[in-house]
Amino acid sequence: MEPERRAGTRTRSALNVGRRAGYVVLGFVFLALAIIGALLPIMPTTVFLILAAWSFGRSSPRLEAWMLDHPRFGPVLRAWREQGAIPRKAKWLACGGMAIGYGVFWWTAQPAWWLAVLVALGMLACALWITTRPEPVPSE
Q1: In angstroms, how far is CA 29 from the centroid of its own chain?
Q2: Which of 62, 130, 133 is closest to 96 using CA atoms?
Q3: Cα gap 86→133, rounded to integer Å
Q4: pLDDT score for 89
Q5: In this structure, how many other beta carbons lie within 10 angstroms of the beta carbon of residue 51?
Q6: How much is the pTM?
Q7: Which long-range contacts (C-beta less than 8 Å, at least 24 apart) are formed by 57-61?
Q8: What are the tens digits of pLDDT across the range 58-87?
Q9: Are 90 and 76 in contact, with CB atoms under 8 Å apart?
């Protein structure tokens, strides 16, 4: 005889598979945005890498391990995950990218003064948050 099935078992399993697939897709979207951000000064890179690693961590241990062990992305991601830290070079690049992005925005959009100030304040708040994160402590 077949063992009794509990109600909802199949539904929960299908939901978990769907949820995991959604996180994998989301991880690749964030990874693509990070790559674009590495090429464009107006878009961040590190935050999308962090979000990609988080998404892969919720769905695929293999993809998460690939990100954390990657020679280029891994150290930054591990520093963030373990210490909430951002390397000094990443801080400089982020703030420089925001400054260049603001310059491009101001030059091309020629916004009204209130919009220029609003965008500048938003970017300044982001830069302040980034620069106040600790720097990674080397592990022994």
Answers
A1: 10
A2: 130
A3: 6
A4: 87
A5: 17
A6: 0.70
A7: 58/20, 58/23, 59/19, 59/20, 59/21, 59/22, 59/23, 59/24, 59/27, 60/20, 60/23, 60/24, 60/27
A8: 999 999 999 999 998 898 899 989 999 998
A9: yes
